[in-house]
């Protein structure tokens, strides 16, 4: 059957000459979202998608599995603790406080703020005494966080709105009268195309105008810098850190606030111009603990004197493990023998070990519920013998576990509140070889019981920014596997599963390794009988959208179907849109002749060729995405529709009033159902 024609997309003769190389861009006009031609094309694409969509499978089952809800790791302040929870049928998690007597109250309910569901809670930070709470919200997916402060006892707002606070940490001074935070310069003070950048660190005194805020750091530094700021529990030490964009390195400065005023802190260099990442934790014992990958790509913990924190004084407490990545630690000191709990991921599986706080000697391990993922270890800021950590795996919704160092026992402290029937699945981790002989791991989730021949399979990957793909509860994965499919997650280079060296083996000039690892994963699944080429779909979002975009242009014959979500696809012009300028430390810049060569070698949009039978492809993009501009998917969709000789469809699902990050549960269900329905149709599930 001959498919209906695609919506008309004009091809223009836009060509840039970059470093002596002509680069064609026939759909440059689709970079203008408000242009009449773009709007008409998007409307026609929406009509096509709705005609092709067909009955939405999986929707009710995904919604049912999401009724598990969720629960977050507690933060302890004074006698209170704070946490998030989402109950069944709630669109967003709610942030709560629990009083010392056990009374629980909701503090921030996004639906209470905005019944439309378009408002999301981006960040929270209680003050050191638990009396005030800073929180940040944004609307419609734009992630442009606005900061407020409320009185915890009354729920009354005492501060805000303070705008331009996207990705801002909040570092309270003791007493709750002031905090340090990060804010962008006003748009009136920067060029029009740089309004997303130019951050500064400020001191704000609660109850005063932001006009009176004092800038303490960031002047004359790089416009793409992100800043971290933290104040020790006793209020003595201020640390400020700076990352150039998303670079895997940072600079750190430290000030003693007993020796200089809080509005003019004398910041001294701890680490500057070093190709490594470090973070400082000020112990209750007066020791400075340094979590670093400096000379240790998998991470280590060092100790130093905060008054003299130069690198040459650092002493190993927890040395680097040759096979596990050190991800977090917590100190329990209300014991005869104080200990440090150290969280690791060993080939993407989490574990926690127990060490003597003085010597670093390993003295035990923390029992965990299974082979899964541990998130954030919390302790009492004033000290104690207990710790709390999040845990999830492929069949376990988020839980909070409590560890008691006096007994050595781990117990369930809080479970996700919804009771759901989770299907039985079989999970295995396999090792396969990439093109250059590198061993790569992959998690394969399949129906329980004996394997019965090849099955429709989704292969998922990310491979970037040092982010690790670890086991976790996913309604979409479970719904797919319950229906008879297989879901595979590859731990590609570019991620953080094997430490910083693993990340760097898949960035900049080495980015092709990520795509080769992915192709090899697909070939392994086919060679071992898990699936066939006709039954293999691939899926990825954001940097993972770049991954599957490169996969479908490099090896179109290897994949039957593709879901490409919020992707980067025009790697020649990506820096000109959204937050792209902060990612050139990961990908490279087309302004540099050598780096232009890296990008041009794989940029998916520029490798679409006429006369090729491309896989069935669904682009899912979000109109309010301020990180990755939807133009990437729009241009790539037009190029594929023009070029493919296949009868398999190329479709665009363009969603408004949502962005790159958090969204309501109902919108999550719709997106997941549409994606799985498309993959099922074109893999034979």
UniProtKB/TrEMBL annotation:
GO terms for biological process: proteolysis. Its EC number is 3.4.21.26. Residues 1-28 are annotated as: Disordered. Transmembrane segments: none annotated. SUPFAM superfamilies: alpha/beta-Hydrolases, Peptidase/esterase 'gauge' domain. Residues 7-414 form the Peptidase S9A N-terminal domain. GO terms for molecular function: oligopeptidase activity; serine-type endopeptidase activity. InterPro entries: AB_hydrolase_fold, Pept_S9_AS, Pept_S9A_N, Peptidase_S9_cat, Peptidase_S9A, Prolyl_oligopep/macrocyclase. Residues 476-684 form the Peptidase S9 prolyl oligopeptidase catalytic domain. It catalyses: Hydrolysis of Pro-|-Xaa >> Ala-|-Xaa in oligopeptides. Pfam families: Peptidase_S9 (PF00326), Peptidase_S9_N (PF02897). Residues 1-16 have a biased composition (Basic and acidic residues). GO terms for cellular component: cytosol. The keyword Protease applies. Keywords: Hydrolase, Protease, Serine protease. PANTHER family: PROLYL ENDOPEPTIDASE (PTHR42881:SF2). Belongs to the peptidase S9A family. This is prolyl oligopeptidase.
